[in-house]
Q: What sequence folds into this?
């Protein structure tokens, strides 16, 4: 088992709908800026890692997430300080899209290939304290997948 925890300071911003202008579609700048902020946190933030070891659980700190590729994941996320009018599914979509490797760019900036890797998703709106996003990712082993599905 490997569990990765990261707290990203700052007010969570939901993913905005695509916009249409002059015959083309574009993503609003605010959404692009939020995804960039999240990707930088995934690469440079202080991540707490827990591994099962021969003598129990080992904890360590590291800078950034490792490349998780197509690993099956349990993904828990708490949004603290998000607007009460923000749709939780759009808040999650911002984080999921930031986690994914940009199409055609392999690992550049992402930590997973696709959000289809997420087998267990739990989302909540937290209260109290400074605005932040609290993430917990667990890489699921083959024995744990059957319990999730």
A:
């Amino acid at each position: 088992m490997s569990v990765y925890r990261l707290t990203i300071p700052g007010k969570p911003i939901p993913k905005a709908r695509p916009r249409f202008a002059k015959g083309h579609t574009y993503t609003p700048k605010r959404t692009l800026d939020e995804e960039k902020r999240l990707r930088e946190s995934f690469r440079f933030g202080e991540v707490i890692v827990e591994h099962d070891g021969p003598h129990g659980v080992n904890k360590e700190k590291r800078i950034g997430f490792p490349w998780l590729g197509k690993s099956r994941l349990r993904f828990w996320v708490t949004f603290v300080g998000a607007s009460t009018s923000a749709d939780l599914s759009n808040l999650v979509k911002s984080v999921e899209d930031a986690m994914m490797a940009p199409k055609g760019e392999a690992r550049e900036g992402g930590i997973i290939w696709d959000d289809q890797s997420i087998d267990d998703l739990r989302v909540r709106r937290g209260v109290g304290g400074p605005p932040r996003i609290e993430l917990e990712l667990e890489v699921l082993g083959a024995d744990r997948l059957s319990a999730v599905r």
